[in-house]
Amino acid sequence: MRWARLLGGLAILAVVVWWVGPQPFVTAVRSAGPSALVAALALTAVTTVCCAWRWRVLARGLGVEVSLREAVSAYYRSQFLNATLPGGVLGDAHRALRHGALPVVADRGSGQAVQVAAVGALLLTGPAPWAAALLTAGMVAALVRWPQVVVTSLVASAGHVVVFLVAARAAGTDASLAELVPLALLVLLAASIPLNVAGWGPREGMAAWGFAAAGLGAAQGATVAVLYGVLALVATLPGAVLLARGAVRA
């Protein structure tokens, strides 16, 4: 299964390169200016604290105590490992080894469930309002039962969307927010598909397809997705510092 995930991610990247060429990758790296990097670091700090808070709440409900400080540190380490090691989930495995598997599974599952529900409610408003109504009702019910989990998940998802918008503007995309936000939601949803190489693959494929379908160009979509990947990687560098400090102490 591990090899299938890696090969799937590599295959998608190969198709994207065949489709748009290597130039979007070069352009993305060159577009990663200081302002975009600082914005990504700040936004990711907010999303990390939200995710750590959600994990802490779920862990406590399962009888596992994790302080907020340790939760934030562990989440940063996890994000860095996910962004640099094949598979995109080894950071979560590292977190599970130190703090228990069940709270980590509950954390990842609840975060993705809220993200899927929010994306569905927003994207289905026009063509399928009844489906959007059902999803919204489900979100409201979840909010009543698990308010901290839902709110922190929504804030974290919004933070990732804003980082994507920062990447789009830095890459020279002049489309309106009404066009970019649905694309960002689709791309970030595709990024959660486990067929990737440290997060790369489905994200770039969905961005190329989505931007092409919206009339913005497949190459531009690939550029934005790659730049988002670069910004996301840089934003997880505090996790590398924490890992290095832990290794020195050990």
UniProtKB/TrEMBL annotation:
| Membrane topology label | Multi-pass membrane protein
Query: Keyword set for this entry?
Result: Cell membrane, Membrane, Transmembrane, Transmembrane helix
- Principal location listed in the UniProt entry: membrane
Which positions, given as ranges, span the membrane?
32-53, 116-143, 149-168, 180-201, 221-244
Please indicate if the UniProt record lists Transmembrane helix as a keyword: yes
Q: Does the keyword RNA-binding apply?
A: no
Q: Name one Pfam family in it.
A: LPG_synthase_TM
| InterPro entries (alphabetical) | L-PG_synthase/AglD
List the subcellular locations: Cell membrane
Q: What is this protein called?
A: Uncharacterized protein
